[in-house]
Design brief:
Layout: E1 2-3, E2 7-8, E3 18-25, H1 27-32, E4 38-44, E5 52-59, E6 65-69, E7 73-76, E8 79-81, E9 93-95, H2 102-114, E10 118-119, H3 124-133, E11 138-147, H4 148-160, E12 164-166, E13 182-188, H5 191-198
Helix pairs in contact: 3-4
């Protein structure tokens, strides 16, 4: 098991894989009563992010469950979900800027100036589920701070919903499953949206 609170715990001498868990993603929201926090679970067959085969994100405010199995699609409760596949009238952009350096904020500033629909709700896994559902067009986290536990389930949800998961160099995202690993990533509905948004900050 790889958990945010417990770290890495070996439960068997011959494991079949890893359960990756964040019991409450968005804990600051939960403590203050902001109704946007979730439980995030994923299962990986080996030490790589790309080996995740199953995932679930439970919205703890509504009880809705987002889930996916590799090669079988993504779902909200019992309904198939997909990333937004039409050119949006206006883009809804998620950016996790919490604890960002002044340099990173300056780099991202043109996105805020160009687009008035920038969001960050405070629970990465649930925001990634929203992107898989088609409610966001792109979600950016370039802080090199996010833990595997915060985004493992969202990684599979987005890919199974038809979206892209890329690293900070806009290459396909993969990583080891170390407790110490910290990542940057870009999740998006399409390459066209990535190209348009990132043209502003290059």
């Amino acid at each position: 098991m790889l958990g945010e609170e417990c770290g890495r715990v070996e439960l068997s001498p011959n494991p079949k894989g890893f359960v990756i868990m964040d019991a409450i993603d968005g804990s600051a929201n939960a403590v203050r009563g902001v109704p946007f926090f979730c439980c995030s679970l994923a299962f990986a067959t080996n030490e790589k992010l790309s080996s995740i085969t199953d995932a679930a994100v439970t919205n703890l405010s509504t009880g809705d469950v987002y889930w996916a199995s590799k090669g079988k699609g993504a779902f909200l409760n019992d309904k198939s979900i997909f990333v937004h596949d039409e050119k949006p009238i206006y883009k809804v952009i998620g950016i996790n800027s919490s604890g960002s350096s002044p340099e990173l904020l300056q780099k991202l500033a043109p996105i805020f100036e160009k687009h008035h629909h920038v969001r960050h709700f405070g629970a990465n896994a649930l925001e990634m589920a929203f992107l898989a559902q088609g409610l966001l067009d792109i979600f950016i986290d370039l802080r090199k701070k996010i833990r595997i536990q915060d985004m493992a389930a969202g990684y599979l949800l987005i890919k199974e919903a038809g979206g892209l998961m890329l690293d900070e160099n806009l290459q396909p995202l993969d990583s080891d499953l170390s407790y110490e690993t910290r990542l940057s990533f870009v999740a998006a509905a399409s390459k066209e949206i990535i190209d348009e948004v990132f043209s502003l900050i290059k």
